[in-house]
Design brief:
11 helices; binds thiamine diphosphate; binds magnesium ion; single chain; Rossmann fold; two-stranded antiparallel sheet; 37% helix
């Protein structure tokens, strides 16, 4: 495979096709009631994640919100594991317990899939803090929507990232709507990118419908961060062709607006660029598309015949150390996870061991429940 920081464009076009075909099929399977819960499609926005991933190394960290299918696929999670997750099957990338909004793939450094708007932005700052602390030259890519930029945690995370010079790129996928609310009606700033100034980090606007523009700009920023860690902010202007989720007919926008963006379709655009430059024939494109469709069809079959998670796994990954079930902290006293959920109301919590304690969680004494 090519060096990750200069990945082959035809390979990345194939990736965008896989993402597009995967989601078209997911939409159909959702309508056939094979997929439950929420399901948010990324169709139209593919150049953002593909461009960003093309500029990174596989060991860089990635975290995103709930519109996450593309981010997992771009990072190398198989279509099988993604489709099985949508179907709620045990072979899914989150063992069938996460669903559409909670894809996760530790091996490929894809750390979710997070449903609460903006809640993962502080996690990204933590991940970047960890790599800087360990003196690793990884970069964290944190994707979020235009709806996240007014959340409290977002501001706290950007402040710390600016203060500690953390190696993280905050990538706002500005598709101009948060559910049905236009960004013009939710945000005091005219330009989202101006958020960067408040936190002393460079900010850039990129055309999120252009694979090459996203990749090249991200490439420059990443090279600068690897040399000398610092945060950066990128506003990628893009568009989702579908509604917010499967149940949204998107009647808050005009057909003309949608058509305008479809004319700039990121897949059509990269295909045209490559064929103009003699790097891709129509036959080669058709072959890539056929292969994407076949992978997706195979993933549906795989998901259909996979088993559901066993019922006893239902609560298994919900909390570490649930005092009720008596499994609190049996493994190790080294863990840095939250202590057993005991409350003073039940007369079991130590007065020291509450949220106001100045003592770091990791050093508090742990007793078995
Ligand atoms: C804290 C919080 N408030 C409200 C919601 C409900 N909600 C789900 S998605 C969404 C809109 C987010 O839009 P944006 O960040 O622009 O992302 P996009 O859907 O456009 O990708 C809202 C308000 C939520 N999940 N979390
Ligand atoms: Mg949005």
């Amino acid at each position: 495979m090519a060096q990750p920081e200069q990945r082959d464009e035809v390979e990345m076009l194939a990736m965008m096709l896989l993402i597009r075909r995967f989601e078209e099929r997911a939409s159909q399977q959702y309508q056939a009631q094979k997929i439950g819960g929420f399901c948010h499609l990324y169709i139209g926005q593919e150049a953002v994640v593909a461009g960003a991933v093309a500029a990174t190394r596989p060991d860089d960290y990635l975290i995103t919100a709930y519109r996450d299918h593309a981010h997992a696929l771009a990072r190398g999670t198989s279509a099988n594991a993604c489709m099985a997750e949508l179907f709620g099957k045990v072979t899914g990338c989150s063992r069938g317990l996460g669903g559409s909004m909670h894809f996760f793939d530790k091996a490929n450094h894809m750390y979710g899939g997070h449903a609460i708007v903006g809640a993962h932005v502080p996690l990204a700052a933590g991940m970047a803090f960890a790599s800087k602390y360990r003196k690793e030259d990884r970069v964290t890519l944190c994707f979020f929507g235009d709806g996240a930029i007014n959340q409290g945690g977002f501001h706290e995370a950007l402040n710390l990232a600016g203060l500690f010079k953390l190696p993280v790129i905050f990538i706002c996928e500005n598709n101009f709507f948060a559910m049905g609310t236009s960004v013009k009606r939710s945000t005091s700033l005219k330009e989202i990118v101006d958020r960067a100034e408040g936190y002393d980090m460079p900010g850039e606007v990129v055309d999120g419908m252009s694979f090459r523009e996203v990749r090249d700009k991200l490439g420059e920023i990443i090279a600068s961060i690897r040399k000398d860690p610092h945060p950066a902010f990128v506003e990628a202007r893009t568009y989702r062709y579908r509604g917010h989720s499967m149940s949204d007919p998107a009647s808050y926008r005009t057909k003309e607006e949608l058509e305008k963006y479809r004319e700039e379709d990121p897949i059509t655009r990269l295909r045209a660029q490559l064929s103009r430059e003699g790097k891709l024939t129509n036959e080669q494109f058709d072959k890539l598309d056929k292969s994407a469709k076949e992978q997706v069809m195979a993933s549906v079959k795989f998901a259909e015949k996979s088993a559901e998670p066993p019922l006893e796994d239902l609560y298994k990954y919900t909390y570490v150390g649930d005092g009720e079930s008596g499994v609190a902290f049996e493994e190790s006293s080294e863990r840095t996870t939250v202590p057993a959920r005991k409350t003073s109301a039940r007369g079991t919590a130590s007065s020291k061991n509450n949220g106001d304690s100045a003592e770091p969680v990791a050093t508090r004494s742990r007793k078995k429940a």
